Amino acid sequence: MTSLRLALVGAPNSGKTTLFNGLTGGRAKVANYAGVTVEARHGHFKSPLGREVELIDLPGIYGVIPRTMDERVAIDTLKGIRDDADRPDAMVVMVDASRLKTHLANVLQIRSLGLPMVVSLNLMDLAKRDGLEIDLNILSERLGVPVVASYATRQAGRADLLQKIDEIVANGPTAPSQLEESPSLRAVQAEARAIARAAILHDPFFNRATRTLDQIFLHPVFGLLILASILFFMFQAVFSWSEAPMGWIEDGFAALGGWLQTTLPDTLLRDLVTDGVIAGVGSVLVFLPQIIVLFAFILALEGSGYMARAAFLMDELMLKVGLNGRAFIPLLSSFACAIPGIMAARTIESERDRITTILVAPLMTCSARLPVYALIIGAFIPPQNVGPFNLQGLVFFGLYLAGIMSAVFIAFVLKRTFTKGETQSLVMELPSYKWPQPRDFFLGLWQRVYVFIRRAGTMIFTVSVALWVLATFPLSANGLAQTYAGMIGRLVEPLVRPIGFNLEIAIALIPGFAAREVAVGALGTVYAISGSEAEVEQGLAVTLQNAWPLPTALAFLAWYVFAPQCLSTLAVAKRETNSWTWTAVMLGYLLALAYITAGITYWVSSLLLA
Amino acid sequence: MDARLENAGGGTASPIDKSGDCLKESAETPMGSLSIGDTAIISGFNRCSPELEIKLRQIGFAENDEIEIMAVGPVGKSPVSVRIGATLVAVRRGEADAIDVRRQDSE
Fold it and tell me: The complex's ipTM?
């Protein structure tokens, strides 16, 4: 018996992801990234009667007329007209109970797609607390489909849903019926309102907490101040909260390296392990705490409903620079990683706004640049206090700000040159405030952390070993410059010499194209080989302090504000824009900005320090 | 009129008719002219942009719904946060003008 393909359908923020995680244990097939659900996730579970069910978490939709790329994916999948996805056998249509009145018209539209369905009225506990009374029998009768209640946090209600799913299974997946001939949108709305009037017995006034919170968070003055404070606090926290655990990881790797150094026989293999693997992988893994803190903030802002408020506050300002309030979420996600940011841009309706957003997304300082910033700031910027703030945190904030300001500038230029055109509409639902679900939060956090660790274990491991080989052989080499890595580096060095970079940086920049944080691992490996034992034991930061003049360090930071693309970002940009030209434009302008800014930083700081 | 307004399901798009009664003086109040705290009843959609009307209907605006202006953006009083029942929707001020409303007398 083949498994039943069951699609999770509903408006954004109706609780699909929570149900998906609850039923499947969070084991999803498609890698998903921070930000909104832009890919359909697949998971499996067994129904109470033992039927194998494949659950598909589709992007949120309003009705069946797609407005954005991801809505089109969802609707076309349900219609069964996509080549890359089989039509689901049945649907669970999720509706937030408190928003039933407005969203019922969407349920009617989704019903017209002609698939067997169960309506799950979600968050009934919260709606009941607010005084909402819904007669499920009337609703089910009038809709002509089963309706079950489900709850935010508890398992209760899930059993009802599973039972209904089993009933669908028992009847066998019915042959998909023809699409109903749909009446006009206006008539659908009228019918929905009539059903709502019959089924909703008591409709309370609007949720007081959300009203009060919006008076604060959307206040023209305080709202903006709060947004700025949240962002500032977030970046301070990334540095200060992770300080202690980073120290432990660093000490751990140093101890491990030292222990291996004394226990293993003095062979090339020992050097490979200590100088290649431990120096390379260790210098990247040490940034895990910062990445956890950053993703925790983004997930909490997303899960609480605040992210849409941030977009609301920023919309008019972003319009002025040629972006769109909806670009705020993709761009904020890009602080974690540009890849989910670029993919989240699918929620932007206007093609031109979407391209502009994709092009500037890499300017948002992604978490892969954290290791680079953290290393250089830790080594060269004194940890003293300036007023109540930590100077290192301030420089860190400044680098983020530099990225944002240049994104504003680039978007402004693009809007007046390449991506001219009319601005599209906003029309965006503001979800009610809620505490992020611990389960969704920790599952989401774990998925991100896992991706980072896996990269450290695979790509960064491979690059570290490859680089160690290139920087060690031929064994007859006298100094780094004569090794294979040195030969390659010497080819690049003349190009970067004018902006203050030395041979070691030139060597590290090449693998740094694979992923930005690899540059740190590469520096770790290069200096572990070329430096003395004593220096290596003190760590990479101390080594750099002795090896680099301050202007070089600052130029390196400036370079990484623009850091020409990691390859994966370029690949995703190519896929999402479906254009080599836009991809080339992106690579070109980032390279140019990185080179020019690093050069200016180097020469100006050299003059000032002279 | 746009065919998709008539056929919400699998209808095909027809060219947008721009010669509608878009510019006709209307006795109705555009929603964009309301201020924070105002409540009103939606009386209809003006026909300037069928595309926009579809979007507004899809997200939940419908005739005879009561709406309330909850918040406005910090710059140029845009966007506007509008409550329809228990649903909050943000629209730009210009987009809000596509919806005609009848003001309710404040008590």
Answer: 0.81
